[in-house]
């Protein structure tokens, strides 16, 4: 009996040693060791890491961001990679995830929150929530795609996944090159080739029909205009077909954005191309008509010169505007695009109006609207008058003065002469109060009175930044005192100065010996 008990005890000890030597069960144990650079410490890190991995085609790595413990460990590697791939297509097509708004702390939205929602995707009359789930791994908060979401990936993929899954061989879905699967590369090549061929055929059909209509007229200008559309008309067709074709390829967000920008750019180039041809065709037609009617008359030569100059002006404006519209697509150079548009407007107006001296004020108004040294609502000091800008036109500015009068000022005043704009920069301001007192006045007592005024009557006007009272000047019979105070804006500053001046005068008047006194020697 004792020998049997000892054998059982030894067996239990051996079993304990074996179990103790095994690694502790962890999250998604079937996937193997977690990569060291894998960050799942916050919802933002998990979402960003998953999207980066799947868009690089690293589905095995992306599987670590999914909750797969409901699957047998032996199935987790294959199933996890497939689920990550399917979830990528579903998110790219139906849910744009903005990772910048997700919490970046380990506890998520709050210390007690276990889930963070990325949004919802409709499915057969219901909305499937896409959520991240916080679990504890070795005492460390770890965020993964929630189990309930992972279990719904297959139904979502059947609804929103690629349409070619059932028709193409599996090899087109197994490998990823530069973030795209082989079927996507094949679809992109077919889309580009098909869009170019179809755009060529559509252009040819449309131009043939338009040319037949143009031949019904007696003038040749419309025939030339139809021929000018050969080439520019093909680009919009190609851009539209490209956008339609790529919409079925479920491209990643960055490539989808690139495709949209290419389509938009082609349309801008087509319009600019056609405008340039339109200008040349119109110029040639007008010149031919004038030459046929007047021969080599000086008026015809003058008109040809004017047409050439105008065409050059409009061509430059077309290039500038087209380049600006192209640049404005990109955030990095958007300011350059806006500047080009502004320059095009200024250049066009300058060429057309600079010679007109009577319209110089109009040009000044346009310059003022661009440089904006003054805006509506600004408090300004012009020609000794203080007021608020109430209206700005291309020729004059209306100033509402403090006594409700309206002062109309030519627009050139704000470009040719200096003025004070009290609203530029910070609205905080400082103001002075000047007083004349006798040499016998107690300066410290006046400082104490200033402190009392700002702490009591003026506390709703004073912003607490500046309060000083100093002897500003020494004259032969009096002292000049300057009180400096600050306020949050010009309106409060004016009221504060009036209040300080009034209270200090009352304070001095109660002490007649401090009032300026004229002394004479006998």
Kindly describe this structure.
With 522 residues, the protein is an alpha+beta fold. It folds into four domains: 43-161, no CATH class; 182-329, no CATH class; 353-425, SH3 type barrels (Roll); 429-514, Alpha-Beta Plaits (2-Layer Sandwich), CATH 3.30.70. 51% of the residues lie in helices and 17% in strands. It has helices at residues 2-21, 43-55, 59-62, 76-94, 147-151, 153-160, 171-174, 182-214, 221-228, 234-246, 253-294, 298-327, 334-353, 360-371, 413-416, 443-455, 490-509, and strands at residues 115-123, 126-137, 140-145, 176-177, 180-181, 379-382, 385-392, 396-401, 406-410, 420-421, 429-437, 462-474, 479-487. The strands form four sheets. A five-stranded antiparallel sheet has the order 9-8-7-6-10, with no helix packed on it. The protein has a three-stranded antiparallel sheet with strand order 1-2-3. Strands 11-13-12 form a three-stranded antiparallel sheet, covered by helices on one side. The protein is flat, with a radius of gyration of 40 Å.
Q: Count of DSSP E strands?
A: 13
Distance between the termini: 138 Å
Radius of gyration from CA coordinates: 40 Å
Strand content: 15-25%
Largest beta sheet: what is the strand line-up?
9-8-7-6-10
User: Outline, from the CA principal axes?
Assistant: flat
Report mean pLDDT, rounded to a whole number. Answer: 76
Judged by helices, strands and strand pairing, the structural class is alpha+beta
Note the main sheet: 5 strands, antiparallel
H and E string: HHHHEEEHHHEEHHHHHHHEEEEHEEHEEH
Helix content: 40-55%
Number of domains: 4
Instruction: List the uncertain runs.
Output: 12-25, 353-358
Q: Number of helix segments? A: 17
């Amino acid at each position: 009996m004792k020998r049997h008990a000892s054998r059982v005890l030894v067996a239990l000890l051996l079993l304990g040693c074996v179990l103790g030597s095994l690694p502790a069960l962890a999250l998604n144990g079937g996937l193997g060791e977690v990569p060291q650079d894998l960050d799942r410490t916050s919802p933002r890190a998990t979402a960003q890491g998953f999207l980066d991995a799947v868009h690089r085609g690293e589905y095995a790595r992306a599987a670590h961001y999914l909750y797969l413990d409901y699957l047998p460990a032996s199935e987790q590697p294959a199933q996890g990679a497939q689920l990550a791939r399917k979830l990528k297509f579903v998110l790219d097509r139906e849910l744009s995830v903005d990772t910048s708004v997700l919490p970046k702390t380990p506890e998520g939205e709050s210390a007690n929150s276990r889930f963070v929602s990325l949004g919802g995707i409709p499915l057969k009359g219901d909305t499937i929530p896409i959520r991240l789930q916080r679990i504890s791994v070795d005492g460390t908060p770890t965020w993964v795609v929630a189990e309930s979401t992972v279990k719904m990936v297959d139904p979502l993929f059947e609804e929103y996944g690629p349409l070619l899954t059932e028709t193409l061989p599996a090899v087109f879905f197994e490998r990823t090159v530069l973030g795209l699967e082989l079927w996507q590369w094949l679809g992109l090549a077919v889309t580009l080739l098909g869009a170019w061929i179809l755009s060529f055929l559509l252009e040819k059909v449309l131009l043939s029909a338009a040319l037949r209509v143009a031949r019904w007229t007696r003038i040749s200008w419309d025939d030339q205009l139809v021929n000018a559309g050969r080439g520019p008309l093909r680009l919009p067709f190609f851009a539209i077909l490209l956008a339609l074709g790529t919409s079925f390829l479920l491209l990643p967000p960055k490539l989808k954005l690139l495709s949209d920008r290419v389509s938009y750019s082609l349309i801008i180039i087509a319009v600019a191309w056609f405008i340039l041809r339109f200008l040349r065709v119109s110029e040639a037609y007008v010149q031919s008509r004038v030459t046929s009617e007047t021969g080599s008359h000086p008026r015809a030569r003058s008109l040809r010169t004017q047409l050439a100059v105008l065409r050059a002006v409009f061509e430059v404006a077309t290039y500038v505007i087209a380049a600006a519209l192209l640049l404005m697509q990109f955030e990095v150079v958007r300011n350059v695009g806006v500047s080009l548009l502004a320059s095009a407007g200024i250049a066009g107006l300058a060429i057309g109006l600079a010679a007109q001296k009577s319209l110089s004020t109009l040009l000044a108004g346009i310059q003022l609207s661009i440089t904006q040294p003054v805006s509506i609502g600004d408090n300004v000091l012009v020609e000794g008058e203080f007021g608020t800008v109430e209206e700005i036109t291309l020729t004059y500015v209306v100033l509402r003065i403090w006594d409700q009068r309206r002062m109309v000022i030519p627009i050139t005043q704000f470009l040719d002469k200096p003025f004070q704009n009290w609203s530029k920069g910070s609205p905080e301001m400082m103001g002075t109060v000047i007083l004349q007192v006798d040499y016998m006045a107690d300066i410290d007592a006046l400082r104490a009175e200033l402190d009392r005024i700002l702490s009591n009557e003026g506390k709703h006007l004073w912003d607490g930044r500046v309060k000083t009272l100093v002897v500003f000047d020494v004259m032969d019979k009096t002292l000049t005192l300057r009180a400096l105070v600050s306020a949050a804006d010009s309106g409060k500053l004016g009221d504060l100065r009036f209040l300080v001046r009034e209270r200090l005068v009352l304070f001095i008047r109660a002490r007649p010996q401090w009032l300026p006194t004229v002394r004479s020697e006998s």
